[in-house]
Fold this protein.
Amino acid sequence: MNATPVFYIKHLPIYGDLILSPMAGFSDRPFRSICRELGSAISYTEFISTEAMSHHSAGTRRFFDFLPAERPVAFQFFDHDVDRLVEQIKRAVDEYQPDFVDINMGCSVHNVSQRGAGAGLLRTPAKIAAIFGRLSKELPVPVTGKMRLGWDDRSLNYLEVAHILEDNGAAAIAIHGRTREQAYRGTANWLPIAEVKAAVRLPVIGNGDVKCVADIERLKALTNCDAVMIGRAAVGNPWIFQRKDRSAVSFDQKAAMIRRHLAAMLDYYGPERGLVLFRKHVVKYIKGVPGQSEYHLRLVTCTTAEEFIALFSALEARAGEAAEPIEAAAWQPAECGVV
């Protein structure tokens, strides 16, 4: 972590240039805390539906739970209704006191974007202006936005939206280099991120297809962005926030982290739900580990923590018989390609 701020979100100093992306189903308190400890400069929550909040859904309360050590913390929200979005965000900020809030303009999931929320907001720039104009005046904390390049290749309006955000009080912009139509297919286009950085005076955070340390440096060099947001590549490799590729992390380190992360999940969610939710993490942690194919299916289908630990202990013993260079070789080719 840097000793001096790398950039500011309004008045808020940010002491690093790598940030864990808000990811539904992944960016929960246990995983955020691990990534924050290893160098992620901000803890973004999973995206939160203000429509669900307005119905007093008990399931939304967990999204506001964070540890003091995670600060700065950002709550990310989505909705298509401006009044409801603003009112529910004001209530959440007053009750839970995040350091700033973020508006999701990037979710490509059909039942979100087709209803006009997430990336669907990119089709209604006037609504974006209304949201940010109100929030920047009515909130005591900064408001930022995470966006895509546009709805599709025929409606690339990232510069228009970036200027709208700047003109209506946004404190920073994060940009994923794909359209809504692309979802996560194809290759992220980083050049528009550079265009936005040159066009606005706000901090710009680049995102999309950052798979390894070399990608971090390429994205920064190409775009001059203030920070890099990392999503899928951090799952199974939270050490990327220390600028370490998977191949640079020993199996002993991975094994210790698996045990620690599992314990945190069991403690936070309870033994049954915690184990189920941890499965998607463990398959990424053990990818490329010698002998993992023999244990993969059993690890993701076992039903008790005791069974999981017994299976993982057997995998540890199996992997310990292989030389470390084998593991490194297994990771390297797929981990970092030229984008």
Remarks:
- DSSP finds 13 helices and eleven strands in the chain.
- The longest helix spans residues 251-269.
